[in-house]
Write a structure and sequence with these properties.
mainly beta
């Protein structure tokens, strides 16, 4: 199938969905099953395939030094704010697309602003094709990792690969995060790969919002396999 038709199907599958912006991203499947390696710096001027797939309502994202950074995380991070219950902000990259096994060693750091009116933390989402072939209507599934709460004002590392995920078939405007937070079944990555052996990731990254009114957070050092993304303000400024 040609790339244009595949992208059209992605757009159709994601219309009105929580990861709607993925329709504009190109999957970057590497020959190496473990994916790209090394450390890269993501800034407003150098996105490294990161994109805000859904900034809805009054939600915002900002590269800043306001919260510092986690250990070995440079000088800054990305701040995310979702003032209202309907706000949502996502920031994902297609560069990590490929087999789900790529996420067995994955993690990120997050911090909650002490002034937040919510005690939630930003979650991690993987958009995937359930059968790993051409993305057809109904194939798109979202794997949602819900982090534990943590003390405000403290950088906390979340070991995504050893955690559990909700698996949501993305239909219409279904919000995978809300469904997971409201009691969705959670499974380990190994259990998901056993149940869906052909499932292939298209993109992954941070998600905040969908009921978490008043949450202000920061995220940094997203690691997938041998690749680590350091989120920093544009050093040219």
């Amino acid at each position: 199938m040609g790339r244009g038709r595949r992208n059209g199907l992605i757009a159709a599958a994601l219309a009105g969905a929580a990861l709607v912006g993925l329709a504009s991203l190109q999957p970057a499947f590497a020959i190496d099953p473990f994916g790209p390696s090394g450390r890269v710096t993501v800034t407003p001027a150098a996105s490294n395939q990161f994109a805000g797939t859904l900034d809805e309502g009054t939600g915002t994202r900002e590269f800043t030094t306001r919260y510092g950074a986690p250990p070995d995380g440079g000088t800054g991070a990305m701040a995310i704010s979702t003032p209202d219950g309907g706000d949502k902000v996502q920031f994902v990259t297609a560069e990590v697309g490929g087999p789900l096994s790529r996420f067995a060693d994955s993690s990120y750091w997050a911090l909650r602003d002490p002034a937040s009116h919510s005690d939630a933390m930003p979650s991690f989402a993987i958009a995937a094709d359930v059968d790993g072939g051409d993305l057809q209507a109904g194939d798109l599934h979202v794997l949602t990792y819900l982090p534990d709460h943590a003390a405000a004002g403290t950088w906390t590392r979340y070991d995504v690969g050893s955690g559990t995920f909700c698996v949501t078939r993305q239909i219409g405007r279904a919000d995978a995060y809300r469904q997971c937070r409201d009691g969705g079944e959670q499974r380990t990555l190994a259990q998901i790969m056993d149940e869906f052996p052909q499932m292939t990731a298209y993109a992954a990254g941070f998600n905040q919002g969908g009921g978490d009114a008043g949450l202000v957070s920061a995220v940094d050092l997203m690691q997938v396999g041998a690749r680590t993304y350091d989120l920093e303000p544009d050093t040219a400024r």
